Amino acid sequence: ANRDFPVSANATLAFGGDGNLVLSQGSLQVWSSNTSGQGVVAMVLYVTGNLVLHREKFEIVWQSFDHPTDSLVVNQILKLGTRIVSSVSPTNKSPGSFYLELQPHALVGFAQAPGTPQ
């Protein structure tokens, strides 16, 4: 949910009757799919690794593949305007200095100098 401040082992991920998926740390809501009231009836984790919230007839409302972080998996698509950002190291998942972004006419990779805005 947040690469800079990951939740602890006792965090909870709850799929509510309102169709919202919520990550909580104690009483603090850390992240939400914001799908409350959108007709979500099921949550499915596919063998591809894609976590999907569906309406009836498997219409996708939200899917994890639309929110890449530092990598893509087989069959995951990098959509226009979306970027993946390297991790600082294998053990530090905070955003690193390298980006890959799909722009209208090119796939652009670049490096960011430490301390400069994204």
How would you characterize this protein structure?
Helices cover 0% and strands 39% of the residues. It is mainly β. It folds into two domains: 1-67, Bulb-type lectin domain (Agglutinin, subunit A, Orthogonal Prism); 68-118, no CATH class. The chain starts with 11 loop residues before the first strand and ends in a 7-residue tail after the last strand.
List the helices and strands and how they pair.
Layout (H helix, E strand, L loop, with lengths): L11 E4 L5 E5 L2 E5 L9 E4 L5 E4 L5 E4 L19 E5 L7 E9 L2 E6 L7
Antiparallel strand pairs: 1-2, 2-3, 4-5, 5-6, 7-8, 8-9
Pfam families: B_lectin
Protein name: Bulb-type lectin domain-containing protein
Organism: Selaginella moellendorffii
